[in-house]
Structures are given as structure tokens and as C-alpha cells.
């Protein structure tokens, strides 16, 4: 397995580029998710070598991250519960299997890296998913877990910012305005996950060490906000948690 790359620098310009691409997500999803995948893989490569690494992409969806991980030299296997999502943009990009994030179809300790982007808030038991990610990672391997926290301005996804008044209320408002229910339905495919609870989960585990916890889309100088309870839940938008699995 290759060595980690040079330190990744998250600049203010990079934040604006991601924001600009996000605004075009609906009109040009391939451009947005392609940019996100390239940026995220560069970030991940600062923590662990990817060339020759075995990587599991949990909640791989249409395979944008799987493709970039493969381009970085990784042997990548994606898993997603939705077969339709896997083929939404054509044939699967790399190896991909249908399976649940709550019971990953991989053996214990089989991955050098277990990766997930924006999936944790979509499963009914986020801690079971997180536990599964640790399980399939070998000792010394890396877990990269990113998710949108509920109290962020985008916590309700397409129902935002009305989720601050309650998830069910926000969903009803969305349906009245658009004539259809939101894709991400509160209590079914969208669940509230907090940064505080996620950090507490990591601290409870004796077999992982936190390498980093940072706001995904912010400049590097904003990293300290994750250490401020309360404030972090609102201004972080999306948390990246990077763990090293330790020896049993």
C-alpha cells in the first residue's frame, strides 16, 4: 500500500468552488459529484496511502467516489442498498454489490480503508453502521466517515431550513409546496444525527483512535469549531471523522 500524500489544504477558495458546484447539483449532478469525489479522495489521501489499498465504499450510490478511489490506485468495492441507485448513471463504476450498511457483506478486517460519504444520516441505526465500518477495517487501517449533521442549515436536506421546526412538519410543508413528498423522508430515509453523539461514539470504542474531526466544506482555519459544543452543531454543516483502527 502506498504512503499518504502531502498534507491537504482546505482553502476558502475551495469552499466557494464547492458551494458553486452545489448550487448546480440538480441541473448537473455529474459535475457536482465528480468535483466532490476528487476533492474528498485528495483529502483522504492525506491520512493514508491509497495506491494498492483495499477500500470499501459504504453507500456507494452511483459510484462517483468508487471511481475516484479506483483512479487513485485503490482496489475499491462499493456497497449500496439500492440497486437502482447503483445503475442510475449507467453500469456500475468498479466492483459494486447490493447490501446493507447495517450488515456489510464483507469479512472482519478485510479493508485497509472503510469510507462513507453522506450516508450515516440516512440509516435508522447510525451507530450500527459505524460499528460495521470499524469491524471490516483491519487493525492499522483507516475509517473515513462523513455526514450532514441534523442541526446544520442543510440538516433537513431538501426540506431545509424548515427542519428546525421539526422533521415531520418540514416534510409536510415540502409536499404541500411541491406536490410530492421529499426524497429524504424524516424518520424513514433521513434521521437526526449530531456531532456530539458521533464524537461520543468514537470515544466509547477502545479499538479506534481519532485522527481528525473537522467541518468538511470549511477552510482549514475553521477546524476549531468542532471543539465547541452547541455551536458546532449549527455551523459545521457536515462532519468528517477520520479514525485509525488500533490492534485488538
From TrEMBL:
Keyword Methyltransferase tagged: yes
PANTHER family associated with the record: METHYLTRANSFERASE (PTHR43591)
Source organism: Thermomonospora echinospora
An individual GO BP term: methylation
Xref: SUPFAM superfamilies: S-adenosyl-L-methionine-dependent methyltransferases (SSF53335)
The UniProt record lists the keyword Methyltransferase: yes
Pfam families listed in its UniProt record: Methyltransf_11
Protein name per Swiss-Prot or TrEMBL: Methyltransferase domain-containing protein
Keywords assigned: Methyltransferase, Transferase
Methyltransferase type domain residues: 56-144
A single MF term (Gene Ontology): S-adenosylmethionine-dependent methyltransferase activity
Amino acid at each position: 500500500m502506498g504512503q499518504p500524500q502531502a498534507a491537504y489544504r482546505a482553502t476558502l477558495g475551495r469552499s466557494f468552488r464547492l458551494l458553486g458546484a452545489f448550487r448546480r447539483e440538480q441541473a448537473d449532478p455529474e459535475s457536482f459529484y465528480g468535483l466532490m469525489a476528487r476533492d474528498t479522495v485528495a483529502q483522504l489521501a492525506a491520512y493514508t496511502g491509497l495506491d494498492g489499498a483495499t477500500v470499501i465504499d459504504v453507500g456507494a450510490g452511483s459510484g462517483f467516489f468508487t471511481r475516484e478511489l479506483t483512479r487513485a490506485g485503490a482496489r475499491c468495492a462499493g456497497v449500496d442498498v439500492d440497486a437502482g441507485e447503483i445503475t442510475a448513471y449507467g453500469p456500475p463504476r468498479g466492483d459494486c454489490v447490493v447490501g446493507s450498511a447495517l450488515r456489510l457483506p464483507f469479512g472482519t478486517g478485510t479493508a485497509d480503508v472503510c469510507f462513507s460519504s453522506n450516508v450515516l444520516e440516512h440509516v435508522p441505526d447510525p451507530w450500527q453502521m459505524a460499528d460495521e465500518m470499524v469491524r471490516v477495517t483491519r487493525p492499522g487501517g483507516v475509517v473515513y466517515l462523513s455526514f450532514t449533521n441534523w442541526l446544520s442549515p442543510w440538516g433537513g436536506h431538501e426540506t431545509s431550513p424548515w427542519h428546525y421546526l421539526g422533521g415531520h412538519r418540514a416534510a409536510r410543508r415540502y409536499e404541500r409546496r411541491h406536490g410530492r413528498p421529499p426524497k429524504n423522508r424524516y424518520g424513514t430515509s433521513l434521521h437526526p444525527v449530531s456531532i456530539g453523539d458521533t464524537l461520543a461514539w468514537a470515544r466509547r470504542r477502545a479499538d479506534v483512535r481519532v485522527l481528525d474531526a473537522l467541518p468538511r466544506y470549511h477552510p482549514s482555519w475553521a477546524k476549531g469549531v468542532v471543539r465547541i459544543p452547541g455551536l458546532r452543531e449549527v455551523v459545521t454543516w457536515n462532519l468528517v471523522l477520520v479514525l485509525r483502527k488500533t490492534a485488538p
